Amino acid sequence: MNFDILSLFPGMFSGPFDESIIKRAKDKQLIDISLHNIRDWATDKHQTADDAPYGGGAGMVLKAGPLASCIESVKRRHPASTVVFTSPQGRRLTHNIAVELSKSSGLIIVCGRYEGIDERIRSLYAEDDISLGDFVLSGGEIAAMAIVDSVTRLIPGALGSNESAETDSFGDGLLEYPHYTRPPEFKGLSVPEALLSGNHELIRKWRRKESLRKTRSLRPDMLSTVILTREDRKMLTEIEQEDDCVM
Ligand code: SAH
User: Fold this and answer.
1) What pTM, to 2 d.p., does this model score?
2) For ligand 1, atom 18, which residue shows the shortest CA distance?
3) Given 57, 152, 238, 241, which residue has the most CB atoms within 10 angstroms?
4) What domains sit in the chain, N to C, each tagged with a CATH number?
């Protein structure tokens, strides 16, 4: 999958894209990331990529010309890629949106800065607008990193055999169960017995039940959309009795 990232600060990506899962996915040629400096497409001698907003007011706006040239050049190279704008006004990034984006042959991710981007560029080129949440970042770079990371994890082969996107939170519509590693006791807290039992069925059941318990406790809204099995419903009844007793 090709990721093209258009930014005024491409240097921000060294580090996050040079470690761990993203690095491995690049090395395995599952993904290819190209960084494009929007400023390189400015034509004046000062390489101006931003300008004051019409109507006055604070801040600067990314100019239409350099960004349009940059998008068009990248799109010529990867015509099947989807042009995604990062914006606090976009669709909030979720697991389902990451799955949707992972089906595209490539993403051209546009990172805004300052007050944002000349609206005409959005109208002309944006195929999707993605937000990280209801807050304002200083630029789209961190959002682009989140998009690349969450999408890459879903590409078959990107995660090692010990890692799985399916059991991760949201992969099956629930939050994931809690994890423990050695030692078996830490500051008076023990690892749940089922996990030490070596009994795979017992472990599966424990994990499913704890996954349901966490979801019920932290994200009850998710339970209304997930398809529950009979076993899930029985576990939820037990959880209700156990947890409501404690409270
Ligand atoms: N003035 C704009 C915010 C601009 S912030 C407004 O009020 O809507 C500058 C850039 O940061 C944006 O163009 C976008 O690329 C990025 N950005 C800011 N917040 C974001 C968020 N929550 N999700 C994704 N990108 C964001």
Assistant:
1) 0.96
2) 137
3) 152
4) 2-162 (3.40.1280.10), 185-246 (1.10.1270.20)
Active site residue 24: no
- Give the pLDDT mean for 95-115: 97
For the stretch 143-154, pLDDT in tens is 999 999 999 999
Structure tokens at 209: 């039940």
What residues flank ligand 1, with Cβ below 6 Å?
Answer: 86-89, 111-113, 115-117, 131-133, 135-137, 139-140, 143
100 is catalytic: no
Catalytic-labelled residue, pool 24, 39, 53, 88: 88
What spacing in Å lies between the alpha carbon of 136 and ligand 1's midpoint?
A: 5
Q: Which residue has the tokens 């037990």?
A: 238
Q: Please tell me the predicted confidence (pLDDT) of residue 48.
A: 97
What are the backbone dihedrals phi and psi of residue 19, each rounded to the nearest 5 degrees, phi first?
A: -135, 155
Average pLDDT over residues 80-109: 98
88 assigned to active site: yes
Indicate the average pLDDT of the chain. Answer: 96
Residues in the chain, total: 247
Cα–Cα distance measured from residue 83 to residue 107, given in angstroms and rounded to the nearest whole number:
6
